[in-house]
Amino acid sequence: xxxxxxxxxxxxxxxxxxxxxxxxxxxxxxxxxxxxxxxxxxxxxxxxxxxxxxxxxxxxxxxxxxxxxxxxxxxxxxxxxxxxxxxxxxxxxxxxxxxxxxxxxxxxxxxxxxxxxxxxxxxxxxxxxxxxxxxxxxxxxxxxxxxxxxxxxxxxxxxxxxxxxxxxxxxxxxxxxxxxxxxxxxxxxxxxxxxxxxxxxxxxxxxxxxxxxxxxxxxxxxxxxxxxxxxxxxxxxxxxxxxxxxxxxxxxxxxxxxxxxxxxxxxxxxxxxxxxxxxxxxxxxxxxxxxxxxxxxxxxxxxxxxxxxxxxxxxxxxxxxxxxxxxxxxxxxxxxxxxxxxxxxxxxxxxxxxxxxxxxxxxxxxxxxxxxxxxxxxxxxxxxxxxxxxxxxxxxxxxxxxxxxxxxxxxxxxxxxxxxxxxxxxxxxxxxxxxxxxxxxxxxxxxxxxxxxxxxxxxxxxxxxxxxxxxxxxxxxxxx
Amino acid sequence: xxxxxxxxxxxxxxxxxxxxxxxxxxxxxxxxxxxxxxxxxxxxxxxxxxxxxxxxxxxxxxxxxxxxxxxxxxxxxxxxxxxxxxxxxxxxxxxxxxxxxxxxxxxxxxxxxxxxxxxxxxxxxxxxxxxxxxxxxxxxxxxxxxxxxxxxxxxxxxxxxxxxxxxxxxxxxxxxxxxxxxxxxxxxxxxxxxxxxxxxxxxxxxxxxxxxxxxxxxxxxxxxxxxxxxxxxxxxxxxxxxxxxxxxxxxxxx
Lengths: 480, 254
Prior knowledge:
The complex is a heterodimer of chains A (about 475) and B (about 250). Chain A has eleven helices and 24 strands. Chain A is α/β, with parallel strands linked by helices. In chain A, strands 5, 6, 8, 9, 11, 12, 14, 16, 17, 19, 21 and 23 form a twelve-stranded mixed beta sheet that branches. The longest helix of chain A has 18 residues, at about 460-480. Chain B has nine helices and twelve strands. The longest helix of chain B is centred in the middle third of the chain and has 15 residues, at about 150-165. The interface of A and B includes residues 11, 14, 429, 431 and 443 of A.
């Protein structure tokens, strides 16, 4: 098990001894000349431009244009969500920026200005050490995409959405937009109109991908919107672990990240999807993530949200087949000026399905965290189980936390459990740790790490180390 | 040899700085010495130890505290700790989810120079030898710090931390409170095992009982924010026999 609650050296930028992950924050930017630029603002021409540079089939353009219409028609969901959404100025965002649509297969071929960004983030090194494949997206397109031969030989497909549409249209079209329809919400519609990049994964029946596949999403340009689209299909009895990381430099203007991620776990398949994101605090992060679990299948979301100005994300699982299992583990850390509005959705649609939600949020300073959960078990089903646990930790009295669990259970053969707790890190605890020689930031970091420790133990080692490092950095920044 | 010098110290609650609790206290402790401060409740004993450690609830409004001749008053609590001051808490805090082993490891790491890496093998070797010394079960350090601990376990945890961090001066705030006689003996044995020329101890206690097990070199009686009497271990016995009223009447007649 990982040694998650030990502290790093006092020097926060030191090289991580365990994962070999670069310890530098994502806050840096190199100048890049973009060959392809859809300009600023969003209209039909923007969508046509994106579709044409990607040389897409007509049905995709049609899909995009229809989605644009839906996006424009749908109101901002401020009747239930924060009015901060109104501060997004869609006319000032750049919707497509790239140096080309075809990712390189070796790092040597990646243009220097982009390569050095990923090198600084430690991606090539991680790939060598513990990944089965990597896709590195820079603004709108993947700059690099590669899968280890041994995995490719098993028939596993791992590429970005642009390539998948060209090379695997038959699989793509069958599942694309089926888990999350365009009109699911305003931002899924926006993504459907202007999506670019994101991963496409297909795992053939019975294949168990031994090492994780990883995508890294990097926003480099100011006033930019990143709209990756990920689709993962695990065929019968297969297993895959996918991990994603994200960073962006700190700009004075706001940046938009609005992804759509669809997972399909066919009979008996297992998908584990791990996110550790560290957005700069000017990023609006509005992401729709959902999976469908067929008979005896299992989908597990591990979602760690650190940074951003506003994150709204509620990974969900539709438990479509008997005995399917869904799990969401959510960790959200809201620091000053940040609002983490996160949670989970579990839609039970077959007998004997099980769902588990464990959400832990940490609010620091003026940071605000909100948990929204939806568990739905209809009357005609039998033997469904849900267990929901929401724990909030407040560090200093200005923090705010809200919990909105909506659990609808009809029928009388189900077992549902809900627990919620709020605890505080008090001055006495901090003083106690300081008296042992830890700085105030280290003390807060240790308290936070202790709070999430039981969840982090379930993470792959490299990611638990990365999460701990990000918590340390956030705490470091929160001490005046 | 190190020294901890408390000079004309005046301490008040941060909330009410105009009402001093410690009212001009003088005391010098050298490494190798064990001093005991005794006194009735509410006389400022705990205030003294917390103020020296830098607790934010207390403000030093007069005087100074010098560690090897240098004032520590401008230092943060963690800087004071790393400089060699240890406070054994009367009521230690719980840190859920953080094991004693990892907590101590973080504390040891915090004392190392920038860029210096903690040697995990060496750390555990030292931890286990200290645990053996204090007769602590190996399983103890995998438990979360103070979470669900009995009074005795909390004090044992404090003593283990003190043993690992090897401070120059340890301020022990009512370490005996809430302990049965067996736990008291274990704590005392621990302190006695660490006693030596590298450690100075300030024992704060209400009762003479602890001093049967940790025999002090000096005993001071604190009353109304000051030290009013100092002597050797016999002073503690005299105090036990005559009670604190003896000090009060003694003062009144002085």
